[in-house]
Design the sequence.
């Protein structure tokens, strides 16, 4: 979408102040051919955050302690919700001020900077390109293809006479992925997200069966974290809520976008549900296995039992069905940048080709470097805090500058503390990822 950026001074000359904006509601001026329902959006938002990583929450609670872990999980969920509100609410204000129907993540940064001081305005294009180019990297899809291939490899090879390489299973997983990744409307991806979410809940139920097979114990269970374990907990728990890349793609395609924020709102309800679910399975798993808890609780289950194998298979299928929604994000950005150069009669063929080439690239990288997840994790450790924390703070701060921060500039102080927390996650996450890469070759 091509939008002319108007400076703050020009807007003032045009008379687009708060009084003259009241009659323009961006939500009512959106033209969406196939809008998504509120429930469909909720399904996407929940699936975007909740993956098989939920089975790692007992390990996170072990590092956070029973008391601090539960309280921290809810506080981190609130923090993530707040960041989403900062982004979407500021985007709405900018749309209302400039009288345009919608903005993407990158465009919100660009427009916010354009409304700032002359020294800030050149940063808009830089921030916009950082967001777009990072989101065009199909990080989740690459990790997912490797996960599906590795899981099928472990399950099938262990229970048959086959000795196939993991790359063969990645190629096999790519066959159904071709069809899934060709779904172009976010509305039609809802069934895939719903199936994936259902399968993950089935995994949770099976996991709870194993957890409650024997009595839980409070003996030798930490209530609070040590300094060293705190880092692991904060990183794992915060990014268990993170689905920043999906914020604008799903909210901009809603039939009733006003339901996305607000009270209760999709964002708030989703993160409350996730916090309750994460805390419950995290505490139960930690009480059951104590310090013996593994990075994924499924590793604590008897691997020779068929039910434990079912969890692995369900996880692989759930992840495969999740590829569509995460694949939508980079393709939407690429198409937004190139569609004006493609004749309308070739739009369908071009979209099909772009999606197929993207998938071929993902599968090729996954087959060429089966350990790509470790390296991609490093990229995520660097950029996720920037996208999920810093950019929402930057957008809010620039838009409110210089005098809209409330009593004693409490909003500016709050944003500064959040930025420091983001810096902490960036530094500790990067160190952890580098250590993982070093361990990979030792």
Sequence:
């Amino acid at each position: 979408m091509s939008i002319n950026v108007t400076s703050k001074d020009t807007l003032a000359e045009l008379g687009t102040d708060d009084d003259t904006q009241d009659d323009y509601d961006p939500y009512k001026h959106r033209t969406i051919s196939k809008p998504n329902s509120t429930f469909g959006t909720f399904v996407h938002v929940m699936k975007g955050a909740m993956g098989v990583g939920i089975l790692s929450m007992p390990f996170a609670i072990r590092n956070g302690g029973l008391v601090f872990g539960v309280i921290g999980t809810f506080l981190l969920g609130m923090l993530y919700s707040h960041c989403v509100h900062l982004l979407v609410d500021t985007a709405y204000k900018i749309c209302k001020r400039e009288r345009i129907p919608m903005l993407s993540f990158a465009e919100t940064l660009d427009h916010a900077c354009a409304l700032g001081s002359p020294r800030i305005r050149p940063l808009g294009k830089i921030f916009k390109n950082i967001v777009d180019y990072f989101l065009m990297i199909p990080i989740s899809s690459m990790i997912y293809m490797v996960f599906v291939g590795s899981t099928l490899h472990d399950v099938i090879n262990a229970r048959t006479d086959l000795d196939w390489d993991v790359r063969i299973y990645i190629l096999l997983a790519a066959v159904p992925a071709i069809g899934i990744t060709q779904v172009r409307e976010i509305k039609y991806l809802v069934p895939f997200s719903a199936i994936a979410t259902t399968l993950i809940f089935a995994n949770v139920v099976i996991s709870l069966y194993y957890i409650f097979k024997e009595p839980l114990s409070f003996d030798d269970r930490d209530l609070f974290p040590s300094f060293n374990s705190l880092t692991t907990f904060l990183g794992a728990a915060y990014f268990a809520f993170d689905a920043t890349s999906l914020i604008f793609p799903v909210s901009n395609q809603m039939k009733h976008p006003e339901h996305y924020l607000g009270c209760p709102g999709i964002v708030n309800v989703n993160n409350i549900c996730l916090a309750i679910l994460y805390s419950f399975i995290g505490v139960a798993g930690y009480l059951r296995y104590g310090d013996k808890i593994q990075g994924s609780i499924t590793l604590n289950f008897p691997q020779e039992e068929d039910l434990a194998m079912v969890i692995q298979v369900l996880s692989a299928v759930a992840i495969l069905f999740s590829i569509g929604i995460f694949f939508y994000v980079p393709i939407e950005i690429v198409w937004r940048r190139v569609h004006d150069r493609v004749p309308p009669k070739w739009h369908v063929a071009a979209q099909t080709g772009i999606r197929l080439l993207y998938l071929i690239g993902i599968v090729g990288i996954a087959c060429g470097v089966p350990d790509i997840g470790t390296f991609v994790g490093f990229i995520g450790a660097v950029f996720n805090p920037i996208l999920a924390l810093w950019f929402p703070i930057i957008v809010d701060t620039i838009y409110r500058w210089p005098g809209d921060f409330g009593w004693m500039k409490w909003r500016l102080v709050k944003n500064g503390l959040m930025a420091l927390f983001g810096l902490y996650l960036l530094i500790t996450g990067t160190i952890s990822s580098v250590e993982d890469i070093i361990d990979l070759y030792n």
Summary: The two ends are 48 Å apart (CA to CA). Confidence is low (pLDDT under 50) at residues 1-19. Residues 66-98 form the longest helix (33 residues). The chain is about 70% helix and 0% strand.
